[in-house]
Amino acid sequence: MPLLNLRDVATETALRPGVLYRSAQPHTLTADDAKLVAGLRLIADLRGDNERGPGDWAPVLGGAVRHALLGAGSSDAAPAQLAALPADLTLGDLYVGLLRHRTTWFAGVVAEIADGLPALVHCAAGKDRTGIVVALILDLLGVEHEAIVRDYALTAKALPDVMLMLDLTPSRDAPAALLEAPESAMRTFLAALGELGGAERLLLAHGLTKAHADRLRAALVP
């Protein structure tokens, strides 16, 4: 099984291809996965310690790529925690809550990525934490919101295989709505982000520097 939910963030945007990728966690890595990783400088791993399998990236690590463990502070959106969330909580509301309460963590992740391009960012499913991080970067770069929504929504096609890999079952492990990737969730997130002044203003107030933002633009904006 190749790396799931994998794509270049340039797929639905006008950004420079081959610079920033997103995916689910590694499972059974293929030769194509190894080739991709060989061209990176950073794997930004957003999973917590209890989510990572021992050495799951080891078969493809080596050379210049650095595997950065950035999951501290991200456990609210880990698959194992979703079952404890209120049944009436919408995915968009979850994303807005994470944005408001984990802003400094998100700023730190974006800074790591800015310093490590070309990079791959992932969590467990490559949906929630990864989706928020990618949306923040795209908003900072001035990508139109409908393109951000389209990028996020591509995850829906990969979810059946991702849920199988993670052994997650709706209702048993989490409210079914939290295991989906509806466009409405990202639209809710982006509306809240706009009310907070946009990604650049928000992240600069929580630890990102102008140099980080400039590096992202230089690498990703053609």
TrEMBL record:
Keywords: Hydrolase. Residues 104-138 form the Tyrosine specific protein phosphatases domain. One of its GO terms (molecular function) is protein tyrosine phosphatase activity. The keyword Hydrolase applies. It is an enzyme of class 3 (hydrolase). Pfam families: Y_phosphatase3. It comes from Nonomuraea jabiensis. It comes from the Bacteria. Its EC number is 3.1.3.48. Belongs to the protein-tyrosine phosphatase family. InterPro entries: Prot-tyrosine_phosphatase-like, Tyr/Ser_Pase_IphP-type, Tyr_Pase_AS, Tyr_Pase_dom. Coiled coil: none annotated. This is Protein-tyrosine phosphatase.
